[in-house]
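Sample entry as discussed:
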Amino acid sequence: MAEEKDTTEKIDHSDEGYLKHLEHRIGDIFHNIPESVHDAFARHRRTAFEQHPFFFSTLGLLGLVATWQGFADVLERINFFDLYPGSLLIIGLIILLLTGRLYRQLDR
């Protein structure tokens, strides 16, 4: 639990000093609210993946395999890649290079 502050500190009872002290105390209260709410609901909250890991893993795997097969079927229908399979490799490497550079740019 959060460490309690010493409340015996001297409070400046002038308007400005008291308002600053009051603002600080209210700020402390609101700062601790998200943490206390999180602690209260942490034991009740579980993600859907945590509740049903086999179901979501199977769906994810099915989506990955279907996408992979779809790309393979589309590429097989393009005669150019049958005649020049090296071009597919070069196109793939260029795409990886460009996405890597884009990721590096966006990560800055």
In short: The chain has three domains: 11-45, 50-77, 79-108. Residues 81 and 87 are 7 Å apart (CA to CA).
